[in-house]
Structure formats: structure tokens, C-alpha cells
Design brief:
This protein is an alpha/beta fold and 438 residues long. It is built from 13 helices and 18 strands. The protein folds into three domains: 114 residues, Rossmann fold; 240 residues, tm_1862 like domain (pyruvate-formate lyase- activating enzyme, Alpha-Beta Horseshoe), CATH 3.80.30; 68 residues, Beta Barrel (OB fold (Dihydrolipoamide Acetyltransferase, E2P)). The strands form four sheets. It has a six-stranded parallel β-sheet with strand order 6-9-10-11-12-13, covered by helices on one side. A five-stranded parallel β-sheet has the order 2-1-3-4-5, sandwiched between helices. The structure holds iron/sulfur cluster (SF4). The site of iron/sulfur cluster has 9 residues, from helix 6.
Length: 438
């Protein structure tokens, strides 16, 4: 059943042209003459003279009276542009206010809002969460499910198709948490770069970043689980330009050989992944994390060598490595070209050696630097140390810094950010002292 649109164009012919542009963007809708059974009602307003203003507002109120539940009422045009702030306060009947510059993205604005009303957006209710383990950081879920078809993964089977959470709902949850003192957020999902694709919005992360940046009080954010074939350069640039989002890039590549990427059904080849990783690595103070699978069916010796060579050349800050294992219901389980266990174990050992070396190298780069850290609490290593993390790092994932001295007067406050001088490395942990407030 097609969705229905009722559009009222008030004012001059200029407005009519703008209305036609909107209709052009909304061709999937059936145009109806009455607002009563429309799914979307647009009033393209005129604010030229008082009588026109009154007509615009009266039209909106009349349409609201009779519209069906869950329909969207959109106010666009000159009046909405001129008095947007006042109208937003007074005209609660309207769901979307848009001015004169958004006619050609009206479809996008409607989709974003419909997402809020969509019955599949089960996350919109924003059930009150009690954040455990931190008084400053929270993980925020962007979506459930996944539309990818990775050969080795059973997640789409039990989590279902991608279901993005409404942007409004994400913003609402973050705003509430900021009002409780949280200032650092990690946005997560199975494939974060697909966020809002189920609403035909290609780069939903750009919308997310813009919306989150407007929340006063949030100072630190990162996005986890980028997926190569749904990640665009525009999203990477948006992250790099952001004052709030760190240059923190977590993109599980799983492999680098074209042959394996194809067998794994990852949707992107070597060149695309290398291009994306180069952008990430060249971003100022960037931190690049990935994960790799060793021993996937069909992984030839030369594929593995290509992987090793690439890892040695690229130098990730952190890598998780997994030995391939058959998972019920996956494509890979049915593949014939399985790798013997002893070969998988040998490959894992080689990768682990590289990873250990590179993690230490990444940590060693911090020695002698003054870096922003967040004091987290007493260290489990020893009560003498305070546990901290580098501000860019994801909570509980990228490591621990041991703070052994404090040059400030007064106690170190847990959950607060400071500048620390990193002096040495002990095992796989950095050791440093707090030298000033951040
Ligand atoms: S590995 Fe990640 S992206 Fe691939 S199917 Fe599983 S959940 Fe989706």
C-alpha cells in the first residue's frame, strides 16, 4: 500500500515552485486531496504579511485537528524560516519545522522523523538506563541486526536485519546522560557505518555526528565497528573535522587478501580497505584498531603471507585476532577448503607475535608526551596506582595507564580528565604522573 501525502502550498508562486521541488523528492507518495488519511502533511507557509501568517497557522491547526495518529505534520517555507524558534516553542502540533533551504532534502528529513515513529524502532522508548562501571562514559547503541553477509558470522541470523535507532532517540539518551554528568560516549552497533541505511540515508553517521556535536556538555566521543563497504570517505572526513569525535577508528578488516575478502563476502577489496586505512592513519593523532580472522576456509599460504606483510607495514595500534571456527548456519561452515587446526594455530601464533610487538610500539610512542587522560579509579594492579585511560581510547578496551604521582594539590578525582606526563612502560601498561588539569 503506497504512503499518502497531502501538501498545501500557501503564498506566492515562488512557494509553489518550492512545493513542486518537495513533491519531486516525494514521488513515492500518492498525493491526496484531504489531510485526514495522509501519512505526511506538508504546509508550505508564507510569512509575508500578517494575514498570510494567520492563514498559515490556521491551516496547520485545522489539519492537525483531523489528521490520523502517527501521521507527520511538516511546516516548511518562509514563516517557518523566519520564526522557527518561536514556532517550535508554541506550535507543538508540528512534527518537523523546516525553512526555505531544505526543500531538496525533505525526503531525508521525513525519513529521519518517521524513523522515530516506526514500530521497528524499538529502541526509541529510551528506557532509563543505569550506567554501570563509569561515572563519565557510556556506550550508546545505534542499531540492532546487520544486513551484511559475512561468511563466518551467524549474527544476522539471530539478530535479524539492520534496525537503526531513531536519531532523535539517540540524541535524547545522550542529552539525558550529559545532564547526569557523563561526557564521554562510544557509539556501537554490529555495523555502525550502515546506521540509518534502512531508512535510505547513506551516511547516517554524518547526521549522527552533527547532532551529537550540538549537545552542550559532551566533550569526547568515538564510533566503534566501522564496516569497509558501507564506510565513505565523507564519514571519515566528518570524524576528522569533528571537535568532539576523536580520530579513533575501529574497523574490523578480517583479512587483507582480495581472495579471502571475496570468500568472506566482505563486499570490499584490498584497495578500498587500504585507501580507508591510509586516511585513518594520516588523520592527526589517530588511533586505529582492527580485528583479523586467521584460518578461514580457503586461506592459502600466500593469502596469509600477504596479511602478515600488510600488518608489518601498516602498524595498527591494536589488533584482535581470532582463530576461525565453524559457526552453525554460516556459509563458511559449508565450505570445503578447511584449514587444518595445526596450521591455524601456527598462523595465530605468528599474528600474536606481530600484534604484541606493535601494541608495545604504539604504547612506546607515548613515552615523554603530555597526554589527556581520564582517571578511572583504583588500579587492580596495586592500590598505590590510580588506573587511567588515554582520553581517545575506548573504555575497557584499549588498555590502562598507571598513574603513580600527582603534582596537583588535592586528591585525584575519579571520572575527571587531566594532563599526564607519560614516563615509562611497565609490561603492557604506560606509567605516568598527573601534571595539570586538562
Ligand atoms: S561480522 Fe559483523 S558485519 Fe559481518 S555479518 Fe557479522 S555482524 Fe554483520
Amino acid at each position: 500500500m503506497s504512503k499518502k501525502l497531502h501538501l498545501v502550498s500557501l503564498g506566492c508562486t515562488k512557494n509553489l515552485i518550492d512545493s513542486e521541488v518537495m513533491l519531486g523528492r516525494l514521488q513515492e507518495y500518492e498525493i491526496v486531496n484531504e489531510g485526514t488519511d495522509a501519512d505526511v502533511i506538508i504546509v508550505n507557509t508564507c510569512g509575508f504579511i500578517d494575514a498570510a501568517k494567520e492563514e498559515s497557522i490556521q491551516t496547520i491547526l485545522n489539519l492537525h485537528e483531523e489528521r490520523k495518529e502517527d501521521s507527520l505534520l511538516v511546516m516548511s517555507g518562509c514563516l517557518s524560516e523566519r520564526y522557527k524558534e518561536e514556532l517550535q516553542k508554541d506550535l507543538k502540533e508540528v512534527d518537523i519545522f523546516t525553512g526555505v533551504g531544505d526543500y531538496d532534502r525533505i525526503d531525508e528529513l521525513i525519513k529521519l522523523k518517521q524513523n522515530r515513529f516506526s514500530p521497528k524502532s524499538y529502541l526509541i522508548k529510551n528506557e532509563e538506563r543505569v550506567i554501570t562501571g563509569s561515572n563519565y562514559h557510556a556506550y550508546i547503541k545505534l542499531s540492532e541486526g546487520c544486513n551484511q553477509q559475512c561468511s563466518f558470522c551467524a549474527i544476522p541470523q539471530f539478530k535479524g536485519k539492520l534496525q537503526s535507532r531513531a536519531l532523535d532517540s539517540v540524541v535524547e539518551e545522550v542529552t539525558k546522560l550529559v545532564s547526569k554528568g557523563f561526557y564521554d560516549f562510544s557509539f556501537i552497533s554490529q555495523d555502525s557505518s550502515s546506521y540509518l541505511r534502512d531508512f535510505e540515508i547513506k551516511d547516517g553517521l554524518i547526521e549522527l555526528i552533527s547532532a551529537i556535536e550540538k549537545i552542550e556538555g559532551i566533550t569526547s566521543a568515538r564510533i566503534l565497528y566501522l564496516y569497509p563497504s558501507t564506510l565513505s570517505d565523507a564519514v571519515l572526513e566528518k570524524i576528522i573535522d569533528s571537535k568532539i569525535f576523536h580520530n579513533y577508528f575501529d574497523m574490523p578488516i578480517q583479512h587483507i587478501s582480495d581472495n579471502l575478502l571475496r570468500i568472506m563476502r566482505r563486499g570490499s577489496g584490498t584497495d578500498v580497505i587500504k585507501h580507508q586505512l591510509a586516511i585513518m592513519r594520516n588523520a592527526p593523532d589517530s588511533f586505529v584498531r582492527t580485528s583479523i580472522i586467521a584460518g578461514h576456509p580457503g586461506e592459502r599460504e600466500k593469502d596469509f603471507e600477504e596479511l602478515v606483510e600488510f600488518l608489518k607495514e601498516f602498524h595498527f595500534d591494536r589488533i584482535n585476532v581470532f582463530a576461525y571456527s565453524d559457526e552453525e548456519g554460516t556459509k563458511a561452515k559449508t565450505m570445503e577448503d578447511k584449514i587444518p587446526l595445526e596450521v591455524v594455530e601456527k598462523r595465530i601464533a605468528i599474528l600474536n607475535e606481530i600484534i604484541e610487538e606493535q601494541t608495545i610500539e604504539s604504547l612506546q610512542k607515548e613515552i615523554g608526551k603530555e597526554i589527556e587522560i581520564i582517571a578511572q579509579g583504583e588500579s587492580s594492579e596495586h592500590e598505590y596506582f590510580v588506573a587511567a585511560k588515554k582520553a581517545i581510547w575506548a573504555e575497557d578496551i584499549d588498555g590502562e595507564i598507571l598513574i603513580n604521582d600527582n603534582e596537583l594539590e588535592g586528591e585525584i578525582e575519579f571520572g575527571k580528565s587531566y594532563i599526564a606526563l607519560i614516563e615509562e612502560i611497565a609490561g603492557d601498561k604506560l606509567v605516568g604522573k598527573i601534571i595539570r588539569e586538562s
